[in-house]
Amino acid sequence: MDKLKNKVAIITGGAGGIGFATAKAFLDEGAKVLLVGRSEKKLEEAVKKLKSSNVSYCTADVSKTEDTLHYVNDTLGKFGKIDIFLNNAGIEGAVKPIAEYPEAEFDKVIAINLRGVWLGCKYVIPKMSDGGSVMITSSVAGLKGFAGLSAYVASKHGVIGIMKVAALEHAGRNIRVNSIHPGPVHTRMMYSIEKEFSPEDPSKARDGFESNIPFSRYADASEVADLAVFLASDESKYMTGTQQVIDGGMMIQ
Ligand code: NAD
User: Fold this and answer.
1) Does the C-beta of 87 come closer than 6 Å to ligand 1?
2) What is the rounded average pLDDT of the residues 68-93?
């Protein structure tokens, strides 16, 4: 119940599936949480659902410098410090072979998933308390290829590089930086990918994904949140620069 007592956390993509589930888990463990996202309406709804006086939100586009500075300053203004940073906001982009992939879409995915994560590391970590924990949400798509998802796969491989460098640069202050690599999770993103792969019958795409998962099912977002609690808490205090896979065994084969 108190694993994160008196800690202050920022979660980007905080109104989305994994971000919201993690906000709930962090609050249950005693943290104060600031949700970051683009849609004020969704953030307001998320805060309402979380029913806690320890949660607030800030509207920001993580791909923009001024917005990043805004959510950093907003957190410091509201809660006075930053101990935990879940650098998590992301988009899936188009599902098309590279030869047909729109260039503008590639740039958009890289701007949010890669530049956004880098901006978060650039502006949040220097303001964090010593001994803090940074988690970057990558994916199994950061560890292997998926045909049709070139921009997404490139961005999720890229954030591992950012994670490793940030872990080295901040080890002196005992700030740990690790990446999280979920397989498919029951959220909007996965349902949208299913529709792109199999517009007429998304359940076919789901069957295909599930047949590649030894546990034969997607994760629940709360299962990813449990891993984030572990990485955010002192239980993982000697872990930095690691890639944490949570995928029901998908990466074994
Ligand atoms: P989601 O779509 O439910 O949540 C993503 C959130 O990011 C949304 O709230 C969205 O508004 C926000 N966001 C997008 N662009 C933004 C921007 N420019 N600025 C601020 N916020 C922005 O999806 P999710 O599954 O919760 O995804 C969270 C993270 O987990 C993503 O990085 C995703 O790539 C990763 N991931 C998801 C899965 C999965 O199967 N769902 C698997 C592996 C990794």
Assistant:
1) no
2) 98
Q: Which amino acid is at 98?
A: I
Amino acid (one-letter) located at 37? G
pLDDT tens for each residue of 190-240? 999 999 999 999 999 999 999 999 999 999 999 999 999 999 999 999 999
152, 191, 218, 238: the catalytic one is 152
Instruction: Examine the pLDDT at 1 and tell me if it is beyond 90.
Output: no
What value does the mean pLDDT take over residues 69-78? 98
Q: Does domain 8-252 have CATH number 3.40.50.720?
A: yes
User: What is the gyration radius of the CA atoms in the chain, in angstroms?
Assistant: 17
The C-alpha atoms of residue 7 and residue 11 are separated, in whole angstroms, by 13
Determine the distance separating the centroid of ligand 1 and the alpha carbon of 51, expressed in angstroms: 22
The separation between CA 220 and the C-alpha centre of its own chain, rounded to angstroms, equals 15
**pLDDT (tens digit, 9 = 90+) per residue, 27-54?**
999 999 999 999 999 999 999 999 999 9
Pocket test for ligand 1, best of 68, 91, 109, 227 (most atoms within 8 A of CB): 91
User: For the chain, which residues make up each domain, given as ranges?
Assistant: 8-252
The pair of three-digit structure tokens given for residue 113, joined into one six-digit string: 């998933």
CB atoms within 10 A of CB 78: 13
Question: Which residue is closest in CA terms to ligand 1's atom 21?
Answer: 37
